[in-house]
Amino acid sequence: MRIELEKRARVSTLFSLLSPLLALVLTLVFGAIMFWLLGKSPLNALYVYFVEPLLEIWSLHELAIKAAPLILIAVGLSVCYRSNNWNIGAEGQFTIGAITGSILPVLYPEWHSPMILPLMLVMGMAGGALYAGIPALLKTRFNTNEILTSLMLVYIAGLFLDWLVRGPWRDPQGYNFPQTKSFQIEAVLPEILSSGRAHWAFVFAIAAAVALWFMMRFMLKGFEVSVLGQSERAGRFAGFSARRMVWFSMLLSGALAGLAGISEVSGSIGHVQPVISPGYGFTAIIVAFLGRLNPLGIIASGLVLALTYLGGEAAQLSIGISDKVSRVFQGLLLFFVLSCDTLIHYRIRLVFARTKPAEVTG
Amino acid sequence: MKKLIIALAASAALLGGFVTGAEAQEKTKVCFIYVGSRTDGGWTQAHEIGRQELQKALDAKIETPFLENVPEGPDAERAIERMARSGCALVFTTSFGFMDATIKVAQKFPDVKFEHATGFKAAPNVATYNSRFYEGRYIQGQIAAKMSKKGVAGYIASFPIPEVVMGINAFELGAKSVNPDFKLKVVWANTWFDPGKEADAAKALIDQGVDILTQHTDTTAPMQVAAERGILAFGQASDMIAAGPKTQLTAIVDTWGAYYIKRTQALLDGTWKSEQIWDGLKDGILTMAPYTNMPDDVKAMAEETEAKIKSGELHPFTGPINRQDGTPWLAAGEKPQDGVLLGMNFYVEGVDDKLPQ
């Protein structure tokens, strides 16, 4: 017996709908087996992982905090990837956005004006966009591979941040610890509700996702993104410019990553420090693909991924399993989602006959 | 497809078979939050050993859940809040960088007690505890001066905070008490926990010609590098002899267990109150790992110094001591107040490095 993958004549609508659910079920089943092997009650563990964090108000707030940067970055990346531009340096754009956005509160801690926060957000977006503009320039000018350039710029951004907070930006009263002064109250992104810590970054994330969904669905720009992404030649016939699309998609995704960066620093951390992200810019790539590069799907996938972080912590505390398990869980989820997507384009055939594979001709 | 459905159904049935209710236990929860992995072989592992001793000592009355690899920053605040909400009566936050998060959460949960390691911010429900690591470093300095052929040791430092600067100075003072010309080179790894960076720092120091290494970072990576390059080294926080059986001279071993048991017992007895503890060798909060890979006379000297520090006869910071630039700091016989040590932000004479300011 052997298993064959046979290409479907057309994309299966049934499996387009079923595939994410199937992936979720498989993840849960294999997760349960993993918990069982670890000697824990699987149902209890899954409950702690995926249900308990949703039952308390404070924990929903934490979910929003964790999901916001993932969604913000991922929706920007989705436009990039749809247009066949592979920006994988969102982590760097996030970092630079956090730096440029923090210029005002760090250098002018005495400036108490309601203007400061909007300015910070705009400067953060501008910083992220400009930083993404570097690979865009290199690609349009010198035909450089943006995968490499955007990735390498991540490390430069990280080291620049490191230098800043250990050097010129270090708080003189901070016992030599590498962090800036705490931001003045006007420079802190406020909480949405008084019931928890979740701040406006989550609102930005939802707004950005809905806006980009609208653009991709109903606006000419969205059509341009899809056409150029699928076939640059066809796009040229339609009068679209691939070069301008490189600029558009890179600047857009950079600006959103920058917004995520300054929101995280201003809303969640309250000062600048050497490490401001647990890899949001890279996790967002997973989020973008889990959401199938659809902005609304990305809201869902961002929340699911954030849930695995919170659930992992809850499970560590209440049933004593290692923090590595949450990473395994994320891996399982991604693996099953991507492999189940195969079923959309292929059907599985079990071949029982002991025939040799047909000779390939032509 | 049919097979798939059968497989899924079977899995679901399998799953159902394992359902058991989680029983809520009526034990006091004493919780721990770690910045690194509890098997890091250094700082976090020392706390983990303390936690295990605590669990063993008071097994009938308490449980001790923990969170590991918690980054300092917004994640720490969430993690500590989660502990407070999950019914922890006492929370040990075991990294300097958890300080602000601990204070913030403690304000929200006045009934939960917190103990923050190595910090300087306290509250009615936040105690701090620390260890006089510098006592061990003074002994290490003496050993280094005896064992080094070149008269230069290398120090892998984490962050230029008073705690670390104090350790560097104590090491140099110990070394100078044996060899007045002893030099100390410092590399700032700017991390507590990063095996790669720590190893790089170790290599850089060895390339600069040091033949003894000591570290104020959390992993065994520098010890391994020292072992590969065939020089001697000191362990930090945990006994690192396994990483360098022919390399480790001794190690400062953090022994938090007794402290954890004492404080948890106080909580159970209802006598817990916020204190600022700074204990040393005599209290058993730090101990020296066995003195190995050294001749007997060096070992005897180290043991004698250890005994003198324990008895109070010797304080590592006793004048006359000059600052790095040669200006006097302490007059002959003078000893600094604890507050001065805890805010130390300058080098003593003989340290071959510029303190990052």
TrEMBL record, chain A:
Q: Please list every transmembrane segment annotated in the UniProt record, as residue ranges.
A: 12-38, 58-80, 92-109, 115-138, 147-165, 198-216, 245-263, 275-291, 298-322, 328-346
Q: Which GO terms describe its molecular function?
A: transmembrane transporter activity
Keyword check for Metal-binding, yes or no: no
PANTHER family reported in the protein's UniProt record: ABC TRANSPORTER, PERMEASE PROTEIN, GUANOSINE ABC TRANSPORTER PERMEASE PROTEIN NUPP
Write down the membrane topology: Multi-pass membrane protein
Coarse class of the primary localization is membrane
Q: What is this protein called?
A: Simple sugar transport system permease protein
Q: Which domain of life is it from?
A: Bacteria
UniProt keyword terms in alphabetical order: Cell membrane, Membrane, Sugar transport, Transmembrane, Transmembrane helix, Transport
Record's subcellular location:
Cell membrane
- Which organism is this protein's natural source? Xaviernesmea oryzae
Which residue windows are coiled coil?
none
Which terms in the GO cellular component ontology are assigned?
A: plasma membrane
Q: Does the keyword Transmembrane helix apply?
A: yes
Automatic annotation (TrEMBL), chain B:
The ABC transporter substrate-binding protein PnrA-like domain covers which part of the protein?
A: 27-309
Tell me the leader sequence span: 1-24
The protein's organism comes out as: Xaviernesmea oryzae
What Gene3D superfamilies does the record tag this protein with?
3.40.50.2300
Q: Which InterPro entries match?
A: ABC-Purine-Binding, Peripla_BP_I, PnrA-like
What Gene Ontology cellular component terms go with this record? plasma membrane
What is the protein named?
Simple sugar transport system substrate-binding protein
The lineage's top-level taxon is Bacteria
**Keywords for the protein's UniProt record, in alphabetical order:** Signal, Sugar transport, Transport
